[in-house]
Specification:
The protein is of the alpha/beta class and 453 residues long. The chain has 19 helices and 14 strands. The strands form four sheets. A five-stranded parallel beta sheet has the order 2-1-3-4-5, with helices on both faces. The protein has a five-stranded parallel beta sheet with strand order 7-8-11-6-12. A two-stranded antiparallel sheet has the order 9-10. Helix 2 runs parallel beside helix 3, helix 6 packs across helix 7 and helix 17 crosses helix 18.
Length: 453
Amino acid sequence: MRILIVDDEKTALTSVRLILRRHGLNAVEICDNGGDAISLIKEKDFDVVLLDLIMPEVGGLQVLEATKPFKPYTEFIVLTAVDDISTVVKAVRLGAYDYLVKPVDNEFLFLAIERAYEHKGLLAGLAGARSAGPETGVPDAFSDIITRDPRMKDLLSYAQIMAASENPILVTGESGTGKELLAQGIHRASSRKNGPFVAVNVSSIPETLFESQFFGHAKGAFTGATTDHAGYFEQANGGTLFLDEIAEIPVNLQVKLLRVLEEKTVVRLGESKQIPAYVRIVSATNADLEKACLEGRFRLDLLYRLKWAHVHLPPLREREADIPLIASHVLEKACARYKKDVRGFSPEAMDVLTHKDFPGNIRQLSQLVENAVLLADSTQILPHHLGEESAPVSSLSRTLCSLKEDVEMHMAYVLKHTNGDRKQAARILGVSVRHVQRKLAQMKKNPRWKALL
């Protein structure tokens, strides 16, 4: 392991290098200023850089900003004398893997270096897998996730590699992007796949029941505790515990969760015996946890415990090519469930889906398609099954289309014929009212149509 220590205090440099060498880490270089550190990092391939944040002239943040883009597989552990959350958050956003507060405990230092080195190896493995050849599909463990998007396939490959470690993974993304599906895939791709997968919505647990639900309780521990109860950590022992909406956990309870993650044991309410909690944590949120840390709503040390690896799921609007694929998959499942003979989408209906805004992402798309299957009175999903105002194409519309004239000319004359009645024009043209309104707004900007509109 090749390590660089950057610190303006020469005593700190020599002492840390000595400690690392005693631990068997011999390939250690030192640098006492930020300017020289930038040159060194760019010239050489270090695995881990221990970087002091506060240095004269060129500080640690400047070093990080100047070098991380050139050395994406070098992991930076920032060292700070003051536990300043805003500065640490900036360092993380610039690419730092971890942070330690001086004076650094030796065991914490070794552990941080080992984790950073492992993370570097996983990222390098992902890069090698990409360069080995084109990706033909999603990993088997993530087969529940429907996609043809190259970025999503890269993301799932990364998640599979990270799943091989025992480290916690944080999954972020908007509501409805499939965070729990990803967590289940991580579980299946891990060595714990034969163990339990326990999913918990943190926001649904009342504060007064938090310890009982997570850590369990003994019979008689409180009024109503008529039997022994195994908490979520015990239930997930040997498997994966998925903590959804982790940002909603109250601040005063975060320290209790942090203690269990550090000690890997739980104590039931009403007992004193420690019970092993050998679980892999996957947590999820649609909130900005770094912002929550800055505002004092989330503990930074807990964030670091949960975010050993981070996977961000893109919203559906950034995966437009996946919409037909997902819609067809949902349609097939819904037809089997409701015993309906619906064989697909009309071109107009698919056009509605691919141009629709889905703030609820995949969940909203699935609900819309499932409802359309229930409403369908033909073998095809039509626009009005999706809530669009439309009617079958009329004979006048077919005649106009057969003329192969300009679409705007058709619309202008139909609008004139209907005295500007957009609903009637939509029925004649066989399109939605929304389509007429959008087209009309565009046409009004063109002087060519002013005499007709």
